[in-house]
Write a structure and sequence with these properties.
Number of strands: 4
Structural class: alpha+beta
Strand order of the largest sheet: 1-2
Number of helices: 1
Bound molecules: zinc ion
Length: 60
């Protein structure tokens, strides 16, 4: 048996997002209780609302 499956680089924190406005990174907290059109994360630095679609696109 080998534990190679867990041997992955973890340089970048998963789920972090760079704000398209102020360029600062933050941990997007998408409110899944909202309707799909209103789902997204708000930048804690400049209060910009980032739609969940952009959050998902940036996470890839
Ligand atoms: Zn921002």
């Amino acid at each position: 048996m080998s534990s190679a499956t867990l041997d992955r680089p973890v340089d970048t924190p998963s789920g972090s997002l760079a704000c398209p406005h102020c360029k600062k990174s933050f941990q997007p907290a998408v409110d899944a209780t909202q309707p799909p059109r209103l789902q997204g994360a708000k930048c804690p630095h400049c209060k910009l609302f980032v739609p969940a679609r952009l959050v998902a696109a940036a996470a890839t």
